[in-house]
Design brief:
single chain; alpha/beta; Methyltransferase, Methionine Synthase (B12-binding Domains), Chain A, domain 1; Rossmann fold; 9 helices; 5 strands; binds cobalamin
């Protein structure tokens, strides 16, 4: 099996073709579901390296956009290996979106794909979504779980406002709220009033399954 960890440094260095070659090698080796998840995490780490280079002033917005393109393509190639839960495997409804002010969506889309592969129906309301948009989606789709995605420090405040409006609208006790993205932390979870936080999409799906077995 090829070295999965090397993908982080290849992506961090924006070596596009080498990232695809490494992903190709992993796919040819007929990986287990766990290996596919590890590969996604290695890509996520690569994006952290890109973020660090941006902070240091070595990369600029163009490099962030290029990294996003490589990441999208890499995940697109891995996606068919995530499998599908098949008809009738409904595990619950999740309303998901990136919170107000935040246009990042790669992590959100990965979480969405993993949820769908586990049989959840996902209503993805998109990026930069105001609290009111989450509440409208809750009114319309009556989800069991709401997922808030955010990678900016400022997003924590948007998450707090979103949870507060869900509470004000009277839906808080009907559903669980989980937050994810690189802004998520224990502190952010407490501050926002969410039930759970994670920076790992697979752990997020595991938690959603736990919530659904408690709710049923
Ligand atoms: C790519 C990127 C961009 C791309 C985004 C493209 C896109 N379509 O998403 C572009 C170029 C548009 C961009 C723009 C900006 N960016 Co940017 N960006 C990044 C970068 C390098 C990678 C983000 C990423 O895709 N990571 C990979 C994914 C897979 O990881 P993830 O998001 O954490 O998701 C995983 C988990 O967290 C989880 N997950 C995600 N969401 C959810 C939700 C739930 C419910 C659950 C359970 C799980 C879950 O699942 C995923 C898989 O495990 C980060 C660096 C970093 N460390 O994240 C900076 C970063 C987030 N950006 C940053 C900044 C500053 C900006 C800009 C302000 C730059 C500018 N000057 O314009 C703008 C902001 C625009 C805005 N208003 O949102 C900063 C944020 C700093 C801060 N603390 O606030 C970072 C951290 C870079 C840095 N280190 O400085 N960016």
């Amino acid at each position: 099996m090829p070295d999965i960890d090397k993908i982080s440094s290849l992506l961090g260095a924006l070596n596009e073709q080498e990232v695809y070659d490494a992903i190709g090698e992993i796919i040819s080796a007929q990986p287990t579901g766990e290996t596919v998840l590890d590969t996604i995490l290695a890509c996520q780490k690569g994006m952290e390296i890109v973020g660090e280079e941006f902070e240091k002033g070595n990369y600029f917005i163009g490099e962030l956009m290029y990294a996003a393109q490589i990441m999208d393509e890499a995940i697109g190639r891995l996606k068919p290996l995530l499998g599908t839960a098949g008809e009738g495997a409904e595990s619950g409804i999740v309303v998901l979106g990136s919170v107000a002010g935040d246009i990042h969506d790669i992590g959100k889309s990965i979480f969405r794909s993993l949820l769908e592969a586990s049989g959840f129906q996902v209503v993805d309301i998109g990026i930069d979504q105001q609290p009111e948009a989450f509440v409208s989606a809750i009114e319309k789709h009556r989800p069991h779980i709401v997922g808030l995605s955010g990678v900016l420090t400022l997003s924590i405040e948007s998450m707090r406002k979103t949870v507060a409006l869900i509470e004000e609208a009277g839906y808080r006790s009907d559903l669980k709220i989980i937050i994810g993205g690189s802004a998520a932390s224990e502190e952010a979870c407490f501050h926002s009033g969410a039930d759970y936080w994670t920076k790992n999409a697979a752990l997020g799906v595991k938690k959603c399954k736990e919530y659904r077995s408690e709710q049923q």
